[in-house]
Amino acid sequence: MVAITLPDGSVREYDGAVTGQQIAESIGSGLAKAAVLARVNGEEWDLTRPITTNAEVALITRTDPEALELLRHDCAHVLAQAVQELFPGTQITFGPSTENGFYYDFHRAEPFSTDDFEAIEKRMAEIVDRDEPITREVWERDDAIDYFNQVGESFKAEWVGELPKDEDLTIYRQGENWLDLCRGPHLPSTGKLGKAFKLMKLAGAYWRGDASNPQLQRIYGTCWRTEKELKAYLTQLEEAEKRDHRKLGREMGLFHMQEEAMGSVFWHPKGWAVYRTLERYLRAKLDDAGYQEVKSPQLVDRKLWEDSGHWDKYRENMFIAEVDEADTSTGNRRMLALKPMNCPCHIQMFKQGITSYRDLPIRMAEFGSCHRYEPHGALHGLMRVRQFTQDDAHIFCTEEQIVSETKLFCDLLKDVYKDFGFTDINIKFSDRPEKSAGNDEVWARANRMLREAIEATGLPYEMNPGEGAFYGPKLEFVLRDAIGRDWQCGTLQVDFILPERLDATYIGEDGEKHRPVILHRAILGSFERFIGILIEQFAGKFPLWLAPTQVVVATITDAAADYAQQVQKALKKAGMRVDVDLRNEKINYKIREHSVKKTPVILVVGGREAEEKTVAVRRLGTKEQEFLKLDEAVAKLQKEAEMPGNQ
Questions:
Q1: Tens digit of pLDDT for each residue in 411-424?
Q2: CA of residue 60 relative to chain centroid, distance
């Protein structure tokens, strides 16, 4: 007798071993049809794998979030089978699921082409239609090596040959003639996969990621639960391509990047106008919230990074500069590092003089320029750079102030995000990572206090295991943009470790020295990345207050040139960013050109407007014009262009 405990607490008993599929059938035909996976005592199992002892079992259906990774993994196997059926002699290596799909790496003398995708997708669909059973088999290691060598799968044989000799292997067979080495789990049959998949691109890869090994060909695909989800994803990709901040940045003349300054941004006047406007906006918000702005050094001696723990935990991401002077402690040449973060420097400022408990909390903010070594292949426009400016701040407080400061920060963060149109915010609680400083007791204390703080805000959150900072747990604030993509921007970290390592103290009410708690926090994350996100959020159509060029005054005839310049002068006096277009071009040409550059407002002036001191106001994306007196137009646009919070 095997007793199965279901998630609702009910217990079902079966005569002998039972599979997840049989459990589903005993509950109802609807569940039997929908189930794709079993969770047995917390571990994911194939529906067809026998359960031989009493267990807690949950059945996962196609609509559950966990099903998506399973479908994508199976899709990779179906891709591999299709390729080997169509291109005999192709060797398979490995093919995992990814965030939005899957890939599989192949070894083949001839290169694949995207022209092959149609035939491969057709064969994949045929394999699904064949509804071939997927069965789990346990093989002995030596039998697996012999098999893979016999069928010419040298990569698989090599991999198995390095596994422990006494280790049995799981093999998954699709139908009768195709199999692959895999831990699983998998669907019961290929027919359960469905056809909501599409092959996306080709890329090169190396066996085991080592360039000295044979080169492989990687085929990427995407897979979803339904055709509707697939279509929505492909539509999102199309929209994302239109909104690509690198493309729009070029078209709008905002910035560029080049190899000679890899991972750093060349801000052009229009892009720098956006940057400075964002900086002024945030500075005003921080002033209102009681932050004190500081500026710390760029180059800091190695010793401070050793004392803080960054040298041990973060050295590979730091840019180092050796200077031709002796380090008095070692006698070697002195070694400095470009700061990858601001926190050790802020602690040095906190330590100047004596701080009383009455002074806390101290909210120390810096728009700090930082440098981090990011691999060349990871760089991506403004989204992943090596030089960036954090909207960084450190709150030095007592343990009793953690909750109140967390509440204040969350309110400030939500207020800022709302001004940019971000209202869908997901919070992740990231706890201790594999590489961390401090002992178990300190981490347990920090975890407990951060959890109490976020729960006191009443905001929902989800766990994100192992993704905290090396010196403390953190909250990550994830924004969802206009086309449904998620961006992790803001953070709040509770830190008991750096105050200890760098000997930060304050005088308590009892007259004794105490360690402050440091709350590391950011809202934008970095100016560069946040501007990239904003470009894509607005598709380049910035709100008037943030637009690099807010207004263009365009002439219909040369006779209106002097008046156009008067209009420009009046708008500039009102504090607006305004250009004038006096070129001898047709007005429709000018309007099209400035529309491509996403200029929010075009003021059209001709001889009549010059005579009557009026302007024709044309808004981006519309063909209608509003005719206003110049003074009225200036006052109206000035009001519209006010920063949020000043209106």
A1: 999 999 999 999 99
A2: 27
**Burial (CB count within 10 angstroms: exposed 0-12, middle 13-18, buried 19+), residue 588:** exposed
540 φ, ψ (degrees, to nearest 5): 85, -10
Sequence spans of domains, the chain: 2-61, 66-238, 255-298+339-537, 551-640
Confirm if 594 and 602 have CB atoms less than 8 A apart.
yes
d(CA 19, CA 319): 56
Q: Reduced to 3 states, what is the DSSP secondary structure of residue 288?
A: helix
CATH class of 551-640: alpha beta
Residue 569's Cα: distance from chain center in Å? 43
Type of residue at 296: S
> What confidence tens digit (pLDDT) does each residue in 619-640 have?
998 889 999 999 999 999 999 9
Helix and strand numbers (H, E) in the chain are 20, 32
Q: In 347-495, at which residue ranges do the beta strands (DSSP E only) sit?
A: 362-371, 387-397, 425-430, 462-464, 474-480, 486-495
Q: Are the C-beta atoms of 86 and 219 separated by less than 8 Å? A: no
- Return the CATH number of 66-238, one of 3.40.30.10, 3.30.980.10, 1.10.760.10, 3.30.230.10: 3.30.980.10
Q: Which two tokens stand for residue 613?
A: 């001191």
Distance between CA atoms of residues 510 and 517, nearest Å: 18
Distance CA 497, CA 517 (A): 9
User: Rounded to whole angstroms, how far apart are CA atoms 47 and 59?
Assistant: 9
Cα 196 to Cα 619: distance, rounded to the nearest angstrom: 41
Which class does domain 255-298+339-537 fall in? alpha beta
Beta bridge partners of 14: 2
Alpha-carbon gap, residue 98 to 197, rounded angstroms: 13
Least confident residue range of 126-135, 314-323, 414-423: 314-323
Q: Which residues are catalytic?
A: 343, 372, 390, 392, 394, 474, 520
Q: Check residue 328 and give its pLDDT.
A: 63
Q: Are 294 and 346 in contact (CB under 8 A)?
A: yes
CA dist 462 and 450 (Å) reads 13
Q: Give the bridge partners for 44, in sequence order.
A: 39
**Is pTM, for the whole model, over 0.70?**
yes
Long-range contacts of 238-242 (CB under 8 A, 24+ apart): 239/483, 240/483, 240/485, 240/536, 242/539
Q: Which pLDDT does position 646 carry in this prediction?
A: 66
**613: region left, alpha or beta (phi > 0 left; psi from -120 to 50 alpha):** left
**Cα separation of 305 and 311, whole Å?**
5
How many other CB atoms are found less than 10 A from the CB of residue 466?
12
Fold (CATH) for 2-61: Ubiquitin-like (UB roll) (3.10.20)
The yes-or-no verdict on residue 408 having pLDDT over 70 is yes
Geometric angle at alpha carbon 332, from 331 and 335, rounded to 5°: 125
Averaged pLDDT score across all residues of the chain: 93
Cβ-in-10-Å burial (0-12, 13-18, 19+) of 327 comes to: middle
CA-CA-CA-CA dihedral for 479, 284, 280, 419, to nearest 10: 30
